[in-house]
Specification:
7 helices, 2 domains, 173 residues, mainly alpha
């Protein structure tokens, strides 16, 4: 590089890193947004599904603890919230499993043991199947928003009761 080129380089504006005029931070935000609205890849959530099914199996066999109870119930709460957004009939089909968890919670508070009745076990197994389908059909962003909503409802004290009533949205008789 000769002297004239060095002097010109001092006054030249740095070349833009891209042709769009966006900063790296803006490009990163756009990439994150695009990544968050794509559907989950097949098998991407398999580890989570196995974890939920294992927790349910431990509860079903009587060796589960409150961590397993929380894992499965939060997963089904999440499925319930997404189901409400998708179709009210789908959400209604998940209500019996949620009621089974409400009964088990009431039983735990009185006996300090976690237990489900036979019908509750069957309802929960079907709800776990629905949970997996719902998650696979959702995007990461939809799941994050559902998680935020789930915790907001928990903080507000909105729970499904044993009478199959969802406080804010669905009301079945």
């Amino acid at each position: 590089m000769n002297r004239q080129a060095r002097r010109a380089a001092l006054y030249r504006k740095p070349a833009a890193a891209n042709q769009t005029g966006l900063t790296l931070e803006q490009i990163t935000r756009w990439a994150e947004l695009i990544e968050s609205v794509r559907p989950f890849e097949p098998g991407e959530k398999t580890d989570k599904f196995v974890e939920v099914r294992s927790g349910f199996e431990r509860l079903r066999t009587g060796v589960g603890d409150t961590n397993d109870f929380d894992l499965v119930s939060k997963s089904l709460n999440l499925a319930m919230l997404r189901a409400e957004q998708i179709n009210a009939n789908l959400a209604t089909r998940l209500l019996p499993a949620m009621a089974a968890f409400a009964r088990a919670k009431a039983g735990y508070q009185s006996t300090l043991t976690i237990g489900f009745d036979d019908q509750g076990m069957q309802d929960i197994a079907e709800a776990i199947d629905a949970y997996e389908v719902i998650v696979q059909a959702s995007s990461p962003m939809q799941m994050r928003l559902a998680i935020k909503e789930m915790y907001a409802r928990i903080r507000a004290g909105n729970f499904i009761t044993e009478e199959l009533k969802w406080p804010n949205t669905l009301q079945t008789q």
